[in-house]
Write a structure and sequence with these properties.
The complex is a heterodimer.
Chain A: H1 3-32, H2 39-50, H3 55-65, H4 69-78, E1 90-95, H5 98-116, E2 129-134, E3 146-148, E4 151-153, H6 161-166
Parallel strand pairs in A: 1-2
Antiparallel strand pairs in A: 1-3, 3-4
Helix pairs in contact in A: 1-2, 1-3, 2-3, 3-4
Chain B: E1 14-19, E2 22-27, H1 32-38, E3 62-65, E4 72-73, E5 84-86, H2 90-105, H3 121-128, E6 145-147, E7 151-154, H4 163-171, E8 178-180, E9 187-189, H5 206-210, E10 216-218, H6 222-230, E11 235-240, H7 242-245, H8 261-270, E12 275-278, H9 279-304, E13 311-312, H10 317-326, H11 340-356, E14 363-369, H12 373-377, E15 384-385, E16 388-389, E17 393-396, H13 397-406, H14 428-431, H15 438-452, E18 464-465, E19 472-478, E20 493-500, H16 502-513, E21 521-525, H17 545-559, H18 569-579, H19 585-591
Parallel strand pairs in B: 1-5, 11-12, 11-14, 13-21, 14-17, 20-21
Antiparallel strand pairs in B: 1-2, 3-4, 3-5, 6-7, 7-10, 8-9, 15-16, 18-19, 19-20
Helix pairs in contact in B: 9-11, 9-15
Classes of the chains: A alpha+beta, B alpha/beta.
Chain lengths: ~170, ~625
């Protein structure tokens, strides 16, 4: 298969996947449509299906659930669990629990933002990393703690960041 | 107020409440705040909104209730028999003061440069509570300015009372404004950081009326109008909508509903407008055009069975935009008539310019409206002809009041005067355009007489409140003894419905879009109660001010000798000299318009590739 045909195939694949995801979301809406108070449940499932909740997906949900888009968007933006941007393959979670905070968590955030060129809550253009602030991860003795994907990095200081990132 | 004996048993439904040592009789189910208001006991509040209050977030109405562990919000706690309330203890005053100081700590300190200064509820409250210095200083929440043709949002000034949210969601059922984000970052606004100009906002401006501070205001045209007045090349023509004359007095300490038409004309002259015209003339003209359009549609429907009914009124630009967003397939049901002030603008730059030998390019038309949506309406591309805008600027009733103050005019003590000719005479039918149901009544007065040659007996039209739909009334009128040219209407019963506010309109349109209801003629006004309570009217603390304003317009109608649009000599002259007859070619060119299907997300607008694009 030549490259052009391959690209066309990939594009078709993406379109088919997109359609499949949207249909799955509509099915979820159908299940919950007439049950009051189910907007959050629908948003959870939709994010599971779609990966994140862009405005177009919020529109589908608003129409289906008979809510206004601004109400849906209000709920999505209220809970930090929901994301309106594609999530990265690796989430960098910086602990801002008390112990990690007093031991320099904030400086780690600043250095990470500098290294990756993104702010907290954003994703790098290549979709590899995003930076998230979390509450106590339960590893106060190892403070300050940073999680990348499933790995826990202990006693991090700003100067170690470059080396740590290089592993990924 | 009397001192009731608390030792006797309670009466069902009545709660005896001791407020500050005096016992009042409150209705069970009322909140402490409502009960106190009934007895003129002042409890400060910011977020409270009569009829739809749900939030209780401002904590300005804190009171002490004996037996309760903490201070409570009077707007949220319901009365019960035997309750003892103190609204004025040291503890209460201190709590309110601190809460207000905390609100101020996240509010810009530029009151002198704020257009609400002197009319700001937060400023008044701070003064009432005796706040004389800024005790708490800290970070300010990030604010941004956003504007549409009609509405300006300044989120830095927002105190998150959510009155606009209640009005937009519960009263109007639009749901454009909602809290976005959380905590300190919360912003009241449209979805996903979109601009108010990009979403399905109808521009009704009810949120602007509800806002206690200057977070929401009309997009101002004051400077533009002063500039035109100051330009010696320009002849500035001004016109006034019916509802303005029973509203603007409130801005100058007069009672709601007091018609101040004559003072208004004098004030406009003193402000150096060149021609003072009355939108009412074109309200009468609208009735001629719209009434004729209805008869044409009815004839087509009866004879050929074409589905062009119900015909729906088109005077309310908020309603027009609502329909274009929510019922884009029903735009064919809208009357093609422009709203009255657009008609007047178009006539000023054609008929009046010709008659007087003025260059239409040097005419600047200003409309004084009770409405914010009219600001958007004048910018619609179809609202002009030969490269001229029909209307160049719209001022709300509130904006005009500011300009009158700025000009140093003592409004209350002005001598009345008349509007100018030839567009200054109107009938009572035109005045009631400002009230929900008025356009329908005015139209039927004329249609009935055109068709039968007899005056419509006022008892003929009995509008019955519709129990199922908010603010909706329905009526029937049977045509009997029709003149020969209208014999197709003999025995025909016209079914009409009247509603105001989008909640009722939505319910009606659900039926219409499904082909149900059987109505022939529907009047919809975007604001609850009609233009008297429009988004451009004075903000008022007077309960039911809008019904006094409505009564004011009905009084004006009854006081007039001419009460039917077709009797208006100015309108007759217009047809004789210029338009020839209703629905003539010239009428169609100048007085009629077309509509734009938009869709809720503007997805039906052809020119935009991506209808929703975050800022």
């Amino acid at each position: 298969m030549n490259t052009e045909a391959l690209q066309v195939n990939i594009a078709l694949d993406a379109a088919a996947q997109e359609k499949e995801k949207r249909e799955a979301i509509l099915k979820v809406i159908d299940t919950y449509r007439d049950k009051p108070g189910c907007l959050i449940a629908v948003l959870h499932l939709a994010q599971e299906i779609y990966g994140y909740l862009p405005l177009e997906v919020q529109q589908i949900i608003a129409d289906g659930m008979g809510e206004s888009l601004s109400h849906v968007s209000g709920v999505v933006s209220f809970y930090s669990y929901f994301s309106t941007r594609p999530r990265a393959r690796l989430e960098i979670k910086i602990c801002m629990g008390t112990a990690c905070y007093v031991r320099g968590g904030k400086r780690i955030v600043e250095r990470l933002e500098e290294e990756l060129g993104i702010s907290v809550g954003e994703t790098t253009p290549d979709g590899k990393f995003s930076i998230i602030i979390t509450r106590c991860l339960g590893a106060c003795g190892l403070a300050p703690v940073v999680m990348i994907g499933e790995d826990v990095h202990q006693q991090v200081n700003p100067d170690k960041i470059e080396k740590i990132l290089a592993k990924y | 107020m009397e001192n009731l004996d608390m030792s006797t048993p309670a009466t069902a439904g009545i709660a005896r409440v001791n407020i500050n040592g005096k016992v009042i009789k409150a209705r069970e189910g009322q909140t402490i705040l409502q009960a106190a208001q009934d007895y003129n006991i002042y409890i400060p509040s910011l977020c409270y909104l009569e009829g739809i209050h749900q939030f209780g977030g401002c904590r300005m109405c804190m009171v002490e209730v004996e037996g309760m562990r903490t201070l409570v919000a009077a707007c949220m706690v319901k009365v019960c028999d035997g309750m003892v309330v103190h609204t004025n203890t040291g503890k209460v005053r201190q709590a309110r003061k601190i809460n207000c100081e905390l609100l101020l700590s996240d509010h810009p300190q530029d009151c002198l440069a704020c257009e609400r200064s002197g009319q700001c509820e937060l400023q008044t409250l701070a003064s009432t509570l005796g706040i004389t210095r800024q005790r708490f200083q800290g970070e300010l929440s990030p604010g941004s300015r956003d504007m549409s043709a009609s509405i300006t949002r300044d989120t830095a000034k927002c105190i998150q009372c959510r009155r606009c949210v209640s009005v937009c969601n519960q009263v109007q059922e639009i749901g454009v404004l909602n809290p976005q984000g959380r905590g300190f970052q919360t912003v009241i606004g449209p979805a996903g950081g979109l601009s108010i100009s990009q979403v399905d906002c109808t521009n009704c401006g009810q949120c602007v009326v509800a806002c206690p501070v200057n977070a929401l205001s009309e997009s101002s045209s004051i400077q533009k109008v002063w500039d035109a007045i100051n330009d010696p090349q320009m002849r500035v023509v001004v016109q006034v909508a019916p509802a303005v004359r029973v509203g603007i007095g409130e801005e100058f300490d007069m009672a709601p509903g007091k018609a101040v038409t004559g003072k208004l004309a004098t004030a406009l002259k003193e402000m150096l407008f060149d021609d003072i015209f009355d939108t009412n003339v074109c309200a009468d003209l609208t009735i001629m055009e719209e009434g004729s359009e209805f008869l044409e549609r009815a004839q087509a429907a009866i004879r050929k069975g074409r589905p062009v009914l119900p015909m729906i009124t088109s005077c309310s630009p908020g309603w027009i935009k609502f329909l274009e967003h929510r019922y884009p397939d029903s735009t064919g049901n809208l009357s093609t008539c422009k709203s009255p002030h657009m008609m007047l603008g178009a006539l000023v730059k054609s008929y009046y310019a010709n008659k007087m030998g003025f260059d239409p390019n040097k005419l600047f038309v200003v409309s004084i409206m009770p409405c914010t949506a009219k600001k958007f309406e004048i910018e619609r591309p179809e609202m002009g002809h030969d490269g001229l805008r029909d209307v160049d600027a719209v001022l709300t009733t509130r904006e005009l009041a500011r300009m009158i103050r700025e000009a140093g005019i003592d409004f209350k003590n002005l001598q009345p005067s008349d509007f100018d000719h030839p567009l200054g005479i109107s009938t009572g039918a035109a005045d009631i355009f400002g009230v929900s149901g008025g356009v329908m009544e005015a139209a039927l007065r004329t249609v009935y007489e055109l068709v039968t040659g007899r005056e419509m007996p006022l008892s003929e039209l009995r509008a019955v409140p519709d129990q199922e739909r908010a603010r909706t009334r329905v009526a029937e009128l049977t045509m009997e003894g029709c003149l020969p040219q209208y014999d197709f209407l003999e025995g025909f019963t016209i079914k009409v419905a009247v509603t105001s506010g989008f909640a009722g309109a939505k319910a009606l349109m659900e039926e219409v879009s499904q082909g149900k209801g059987g109505y022939h003629f529907i009047e919809v006004m975007g604001c609850p109660g009609g233009c008297v309570s429009g988004g451009g009217q004075p903000r008022t603390a007077v309960r039911n001010a809008w019904s006094s304003r409505a009564q004011g317009l009905y009084d004006v109608d009854q006081s007039k000798k001419l009460r039917k649009s077709h009797e208006n000599p100015a309108v007759r002259a217009l047809y004789a000299e210029f338009l020839l007859e209703p629905l003539s070619h010239t009428s169609h060119q100048l007085l009629h318009t077309r509509y734009t299907p938009r869709g809720v997300y503007n997805e039906r607008l052809p020119q935009q590739d991506d209808p929703i694009q975050p800022r």
